[in-house]
């Protein structure tokens, strides 16, 4: 097995030339789907419905509306993250998906909270995200006034309940203690990247760039990629939570998993920015691709990251599942209708070429899913929006 870099003329080239990759990742896709739809999907929906019911009890109208909006807009992210729970033995699968869903809901909520204007966005963001890092630290107490710097006031305990749910569930997983240091590091990296990026959007300055340049050393990523991957490090924590449910997991397995999902987070964040660029520009929403002046360079760099993510996935525990997740992330974004735009397609197609042929079956699944979704909307109409 060896890697072949893609050339600059758009010819198809691939990091995959071993049929074993196709066979093992294909089997992982079949197995994960069977486990997901029978043991995970119904429970995820119930978890999200529970958090929606809790969010409706937030008294402060602005925060209630924000929490419900994020559940509506990002609920699919929790469903996707919960696919990692299929790695956990059946006995503890429900517990791991409970922690994964609560963590994803908290992350999405905090992401929105720290985008709101504040007299001191840095202090506000760091204190709010303390709930995120405290939830993953067995030694931390959840007694901080996380809303101390937030001009909107508090949410009546919603954020604290999310953090408590994660913390209490992790305490029941057999390998959580062994993986706790890695989870804390990923959480701290995620929190700082999120906060500094939002501070830059709200108040200007180059703190995010400076931090990323200082901390990207040894990551195998350029600072722009590291910043995007760090902000999505919740993905690494989800994978670690899934492994924490297996008593055979060792501390030595944490670093390769973190490495895989740091690179995978780059693809997730950047491709999301690429396919949503026109909408984000219209809404004046933060976009990570603003750091790139040259779209050709962006495509080349994402192809390199895809190659690196695949290499790391091959060397990690449960490698087939992580290869499947990698192609799933790439296929999800590059199959979106907006991925065919004049801006997005050169980048999206470049990533597809780099992951060919492994991405082919996953692309077929994603395109079929999107077609079925469009047909359901055409027949039954769009689903109702969540009431504020």
What is the CATH topology?
A: Farnesyl Diphosphate Synthase
SSE-based structural type: mainly alpha
Overall pLDDT confidence = 88
Q: What's the number of domains? A: 1
* Tally of helical runs: 15
Task: Label the overall shape.
Answer: globular
Looking at the overall shape, the CATH architecture is: Orthogonal Bundle
Strand content: under 5%
Query: What is the rounded distance between the termini?
Result: 53 Å
Report on the structure:
This protein is an all-alpha fold and 388 residues long. It has a single domain, classed as Farnesyl Diphosphate Synthase. It is 69% helix and 0% strand. It contains 15 helices and no strands. It has helices at 19-55, 61-81, 90-113, 121-135, 158-170, 176-203, 207-215, 223-231, 234-244, 254-275, 277-283, 295-315, 319-334, 344-355, 359-380. The radius of gyration is 20 Å and the shape is globular. The termini are far apart. The model is unreliable at 1-14 and 384-388 (pLDDT under 50).
Task: Give me the secondary-structure topology.
Elements (H helix, E strand, L loop, with lengths): L18 H37 L5 H21 L8 H24 L7 H15 L22 H13 L5 H28 L3 H9 L7 H9 L2 H11 L9 H22 L1 H7 L11 H21 L3 H16 L9 H12 L3 H22 L8
Give keywords.
0% strand, Farnesyl Diphosphate Synthase, disordered N terminus
Structure summarized in a few sentences:
The chain is built from 15 helices and no strands. Helix 4 (121-135) runs parallel beside helix 5, helix 6 packs antiparallel against helix 9 and helix 12 packs antiparallel against helix 13. 69% of the residues lie in helices and 0% in strands.
